Amino acid sequence: GAVVSQHPSRVICKSGTSVKIECRSLDFQATTMFWYRQFPKQSLMLMATSNEGSKATYEQGVEKDKFLINHASLTLSTLTVTSAHPEDSSFYICSARVGSSYGYTFGSGTRLTVV
Amino acid sequence: AQSVTQPDIHITVSEGASLELRCNYSYGATPYLFWYVQSPGQGLQLLLKYFSGDTLVQGIKGFEAEFKRSQSSFNLRKPSVHWSDAAEYFCAVMTTDSWGKLQFGAGTQVVVTP
């Protein structure tokens, strides 16, 4: 089945630095990728949607200059958290739409801790 | 606007007992509905989905869900739970815009006791 590989699984960074999270579709082409954020014991909140080769669409309240999304190829999308602060500590999950049948596959998530 | 509600934040069930997780949605047209399971620190795994057709949907791991339009519900059931079913369960609805974004409920934490 369709697999999305997300790396790293865990990252700790210092406040003020930037962190890049990668999601790769291993056996299919992901024309659309979704990025979610999940706080402890809460649901997933959609941050942005990206289409290959075009600018990402951000949800209301999400700072696009802070959460940079690049979807340069059909198999790779990246989320960069710039100038990270402790409040950015969270679990970030990517999801790819598989084909045109509205199937979605999720990455295994990245636990970001900003100290 | 579309929304999905999971009324139960936490459910405790004995191993071998039946399980039912509730999901209610608000949507103007026929919804696309999903149930996902998440183990601690992991991504989401699709249990089943409903797009159209038979309102009783069979999924993986012995789960099933029934779409009831009259009640705006899509409850998840399993006849006999196993200890490995302890996890967080999310109901989700697909929105109407062209991107096909998923909107998730708040989730239900399932604890399985011996």
Task: Summarize this structure briefly.
The complex is a heterodimer of chains A (115) and B (114). In chain A, 0% of the residues lie in helices and 55% in strands.
How would you describe what is shown here?
- The complex is a heterodimer of chains A (115) and B (114).
- Chain A is mostly beta strands.
- Helix content of chain A is 0%, strand content 55%.
- Chain A contains no helices and eleven strands.
- In chain A, the strands form two sheets. In chain A, strands 2, 4, 5, 6, 9, 10 and 11 form a seven-stranded mixed beta sheet that branches. In chain A, strands 1-3-8-7 form a four-stranded antiparallel beta sheet, with no helix packed on it.
- The mean pLDDT of chain A is 91.
- Chain B is mainly β and 114 residues long.
- Helix content of chain B is 0%, strand content 51%.
- Chain B contains no helices and twelve strands.
- Chain B starts with a strand and ends with a strand.
- At the A-B interface, strand 5, strand 9 and strand 10 of A face strand 6 and strand 11 of B.
Bin the strand percentage of chain A.
over 45%
Residue ranges of chain B: pLDDT <50 for 5 or more in a row?
none
Strand content of chain B: over 45%
Q: In angstroms, what is the radius of gyration of chain B?
A: 14 Å
Main beta-sheet annotation of chain B = 6 strands, mixed
Please give the oligomerization state of what you see: heterodimer
- Structure classification of chain B: mainly beta
Summary keywords:
heterodimer; A: mainly beta; seven-stranded mixed β-sheet; four-stranded antiparallel β-sheet; 0% helix; 55% strand; B: mainly beta; six-stranded mixed β-sheet; 51% strand
How do the strands and helices of this protein lay out in sequence?
The complex is a heterodimer of chains A (115) and B (114).
Chain A: E1 4-7, E2 10-13, E3 19-25, E4 32-38, E5 44-51, E6 57-58, E7 67-73, E8 76-81, E9 90-98, E10 103-106, E11 110-114
Parallel strand pairs in A: 2-11
Antiparallel strand pairs in A: 1-3, 3-8, 4-5, 4-9, 5-6, 7-8, 9-10, 9-11
Chain B: E1 3-5, E2 10-14, E3 19-21, E4 24-26, E5 33-38, E6 44-50, E7 56-58, E8 64-68, E9 73-78, E10 87-94, E11 102-104, E12 108-113
Parallel strand pairs in B: 2-12
Antiparallel strand pairs in B: 1-4, 3-9, 5-6, 5-10, 7-8, 8-9, 10-11, 10-12
